[in-house]
Amino acid sequence: MVSKINIKSFFSIITSKLILKISKSFLQGGSNFPGKVALKLDKDILKVISKGYKTIIITGTNGKTTTTSATVNIFKQQGYEVITNNTGANMFPGIVSCFLDNFKFFKTDSTKDKVAILEVDEANVKFITEYINPEVISITNLFRDQLDRYGEVYITLEKILEGIKKSPDSTLILNGDESLLGNLSVPNPLRYYGFNNFNLGDKTIELNADAKFCTVCKSPYKYNFITYNHLGDFFCDNCGYKKPLLDYHIDEVITLTSKGSSFIINNTEFFMPQSGTYNIYNALCAYSIAKFFNIEDSIISTSLLKQDASFGRQESIDIDGKEVNIILVKNPAGYNQAIDTLSLSKDSMSIAFLLNDNYADGRDVSWIWDVSFDKLNNLPICDVIIGGYRKYDMAVRLKISGLNKNNFKLSASDDEVLNNIIGCQSNKVYVLTTYTAMINFRKHLNSKGYLKKLW
């Protein structure tokens, strides 16, 4: 059966699909450009190519990619026909490219339900909901990120709400430990997830935390516990605003190690082979979306057990016998969680710090001064490799934090970074890198044969 579309849409799809094929074959990516072309030829193309899909949008500052990956794996395990933008192209043209890549002129006789699980940039939600009414919009958290583009966290929230207002029937699945999300004035059905208990948490908020004051009366929050940054069991003893009741909740963190975490969600134990408190949140968000679609715990558990690191998020690569872990870091909250995760391991290690300031990273790199690099002084670090366009800014920051400058190896190129990694004393190497530095380094590893799959 042929899909009925107009001439303008037909021409847009044919042209863009051709460009998409060329991009994949010869340009090692280019997943935004075909969408830009399609939109230029038909600005309403998304409405045409998204028909027949139930849509889930996952947005927020940190955790979008891993949460999306975990959710995709759960839905595939359940038997859904799933499409997703797994290359990380999470802006409007990238979403269009995702649907284009999966669009077929002839409808199949598949009996599987079709679902699109999309990671969406916070400022781009409003472009998607102009044409799609998602079943679910999930918000992971709100941290200061790319200050030159988003400003403070309140502006980021407003950008997301612009998109939500266009889709009032979408169910919102929100992080209830995020104080900015507990008092939204929206008509949408709301469901919350978070921690009911966290025995490893502190009660005193960090000096540089992102949202320390009550959204209702502006008084400082107090906490029964903090998971990290400003997330946790918050309350205002001035006006009474507090964390909402949770539909999906962590009841206990059983283990938290460098190899992964085990935890109890709604009375059922799960394990995720990725470390860090932030990855427990990612698993919990994916669980919450799955339960909205009535997926059984056994399916979720099996899927989480097989969860692989996705595209620079604790991705492990063998480089001449060295275990190299690439960890994307893009703001103080995420960087501090990465450092805390490194602290779970007591083995000797080397660390590469890659800092870029391209548009996708944020031009303003002053945020590195809000990262707790001083915690690294407690770790058995052998070599400190520093690269990226802003390597000198990073070198100064690390020197001020107390790291031994005699161990610094400033690298002028990705090839020099790679050679310094190969020459490390330690067999365990962590690469803490901003987004475009990560993309460039992975492309270099691919060209050298260390990384088989680029996207």
TrEMBL record:
Annotated residues for binding of Zn(2+): 214, 217, 236, 239
InterPro entries cross-referenced by the UniProt entry: Lipid_II_synth_MurT, Mur-like_cat_sf, Mur_ligase_cen, MurT_C
Gene Ontology biological-process annotations: cell wall organization; peptidoglycan biosynthetic process; regulation of cell shape
Domain Lipid II isoglutaminyl synthase (glutamine-hydrolyzing) subunit MurT C-terminal: 328-438
Alphabetical list of SUPFAM superfamilies matching this protein: MurD-like peptide ligases, catalytic domain
Transmembrane segments: none
GO function terms (MF aspect): acid-amino acid ligase activity; ATP binding; carbon-nitrogen ligase activity on lipid II; zinc ion binding
Alphabetical UniProt keywords: ATP-binding, Cell shape, Cell wall biogenesis/degradation, Ligase, Metal-binding, Nucleotide-binding, Peptidoglycan synthesis, Zinc
Keyword Ligase: yes
Catalytic residue positions: 364
Presence of the UniProt keyword Zinc in the record: yes
Uppermost EC category: ligase
Pathway(s) the chain acts in: Cell wall biogenesis; peptidoglycan biosynthesis
Job description of the protein: The lipid II isoglutaminyl synthase complex catalyzes the formation of alpha-D-isoglutamine in the cell wall lipid II stem peptide. The MurT subunit catalyzes the ATP-dependent amidation of D-glutamate residue of lipid II, converting it to an isoglutamine residue.
Assembly with partners or alone: Forms a heterodimer with GatD.
Cross-referenced HAMAP family: Lipid_II_synth_MurT
Protein name, as recorded: Lipid II isoglutaminyl synthase (glutamine-hydrolyzing) subunit MurT
Organism (species): Clostridium putrefaciens
Gene: murT
